[in-house]
Amino acid sequence: MAGESSEFGELHDELRAVAVDLLAKGDAGSHVAWPVLAQLGWTGLEVPDTLGGAGATFAEVAVILEQLGRAAASTSYVGGAVLGVSALNLLQPTVFRDELLEQVAVGTARLAVVVDPGFEITTSAGGLKLSGRAEFVPDAGEAERLLLLAGDPSGIPVIVAADVAELDVTAQPVLDDTRSFAAVAAADVSVTESSVWAFEGDAHTAVGALTDRAALAIACDSLGLSEAMLAATVSYTAVRQQFGRPIGSFQAVKHACAAMMVQIAMSRQLVGAAVDAVTDGRPDAGTAVSMAKSYACSAAVEVVGKAMQLHGGIGYTWESGVHVYLKRAALNRALFGSPAAHRRRLAQRYR
Hints:
It comes from Mycolicibacterium komossense. Belongs to the acyl-CoA dehydrogenase family. This is Acyl-CoA/acyl-ACP dehydrogenase. Its cofactor is FAD. This protein is an alpha+beta fold. It has three domains: about 1-110, Acyl-CoA dehydrogenase/oxidase, N-terminal domain (Butyryl-Coa Dehydrogenase, subunit A, domain 1, Orthogonal Bundle); about 110-200, Butyryl-CoA Dehydrogenase, subunit A, domain 2, CATH 2.40.110; about 205-350, Up-down Bundle (Butyryl-CoA Dehydrogenase, subunit A, domain 3), CATH 1.20.140. It has ten helices and nine strands. A hairpin with a 2-residue loop joins strand 1 (about 110-125) and strand 2 (about 125-140). It is elongated and about 80 Å long. It starts with 8 loop residues before the first helix and ends with a helix. The model has no long low-confidence stretch (mean pLDDT about 95).
């Protein structure tokens, strides 16, 4: 990724090496438990060092996300750590927020974040009430606490911290077995003022930054799984023989692999540029994220589809594992904005 040549390049190499070593021990789709993520320090990468975290940036988180995508690993990292810590860092500092950041850093608290603005807070004689519903919230079923994006009585976006027991959380199975989603609903649930947390600075800008991070996290994952599928395809075509020679020596196969490599190179450039923009907090970060999300996630579906084709009959079997990547790539394409939605966003910016 862009930014790999920065002063943090050595740290990135170390993070990548640890991730590769851990994830190589399992098959595609293998589960990595939350305590393991915490022991490695991944859950606290963006938590300030004064609160027990590493004090790193999204650039370091992106390294982990890419490797999780390469392994198609099943974790609650996106919802519990990436979005959870991102949301908390965007809030005004309070004792409650800081305590939760400390708990996430050491792995004693597992979060999920509802970025869909489908909730609202109203005022009644009985106090503050929370109502609304959101579909397909990542990792909500495994979380102990939920951070819900909601509009306060004046319409300003805020975050409501609620225990899972206070809400209606219903699992929503999807085709991709490596991911976990749930619907979250609330019907006039009582909330206290201390559980309603305000964003630091302009609330709408903060919400945009949070949704951009969610989309970019998925783009990083798609880049990783694309790279894994190209590597697997090149390896397979080097040993699979037809007519007494490796099929990788055939011109048509070479061209197909080269096309995959070009798509991945484009994805890597766009994702790297978006990671740099988000990490630096640049005003054009939203544009960079939409470019990365729309291209990288579309390219991943095409790359995995081509990998399945080049694997021949074995690519369509359960044993090959290619289907794990195809289902994950297809889901990534739809998560946090489809390619069409992000392209509309880009068109509106340049209209």
